[in-house]
Specification:
The chain is mainly beta. It is 9% helix and 33% strand.
Length: 233
């Protein structure tokens, strides 16, 4: 994915909103009218986050009421799931300098927007050792992905409470994250794991997922080469 605004433009991405949006930060870019991947840039044009958009008219009624605007924020005819790679308070103010982008790369931290207020986004622990004091539940390690964590996942939970974000750690460090939506989304960017594969990356597997219909997932890697860098030990 292009990590600067100029690269995004040359790759065919077009801006759908700029700084000043009521619910989201940064300059948001989409390609080919596909909301599965919306890239977010700071005021200086450096990568600052990513979004996925879902139609508000899905046939199964997803998302359930308690996930609307928490974390799936409605704007127009879509619900958006948003993550930021730098401190939210910097994105539309001073942004990053060329030197900071060169030394920091894609970002400094991972923040998940969990309400209509992007400034209240949740910072994800960079070290796996710090995740134990949170509600994230350790799943399994999957080759070329990492050790999965799912928020407050239990065997007998209601899928109305299934948080659509997972984290991935490798070597004790956050290396990726992703979305997991209970809907059959058509973009080619989404994967659709079968129910028989759930136990390979979840522990426990919420039983409701077996009857929830097709799952659409998307992995977002923060390292350079997941196929060779991420090996389960």
């Amino acid at each position: 994915m292009p990590r600067t605004e100029s690269e995004a433009k040359s790759s065919g991405f077009t801006m759908i909103s700029g700084c000043g949006h009521a619910n989201f930060l940064g300059k948001r870019y989409m390609k080919n009218n596909d909301p599965a991947v919306i890239l977010i840039y700071d005021v200086n044009g450096y990568i600052a986050g990513i979004q996925a958009g879902l139609p508000t008219t899905l046939s199964n009624g997803y998302p359930p009421a308690n996930l609307k605007n928490h974390p799936l924020v409605q704007d127009g005819d879509k619900f958006y799931m948003t993550a930021y790679f730098v401190s939210p308070d910097s994105i539309c103010t001073h942004g990053r300098t060329a030197g900071q982008f060169s030394s920091q790369g894609t970002g400094t931290d991972l923040y998940i927007q969990n309400s209509t207020d992007p400034m209240a986004s949740i910072r994800i622990p960079h070290q796996e050792s710090a995740i134990g004091s949170t509600a994230w539940v350790k799943g399994h390690c999957f080759p070329a992905m990492g050790v999965h964590y799912w928020y407050a996942a239990t065997l007998d939970m209601s899928c109305d409470n299934f948080f659509p974000v997972f984290l991935l750690y490798n070597g004790g460090v956050l290396n990726a994250f992703g979305w997991a939506f209970q809907a059959d989304l058509s973009s080619s960017r989404f994967e659709h794991p079968t129910t028989s594969s759930f136990a390979a990356f979840m522990n426990p597997v919420p039983q409701c997922l077996y009857n929830a219909g097709k799952l659409s997932t998307l992995h977002i890697y923060l390292n350079g080469n997941p196929q060779t860098d991420l090996i389960c030990n």
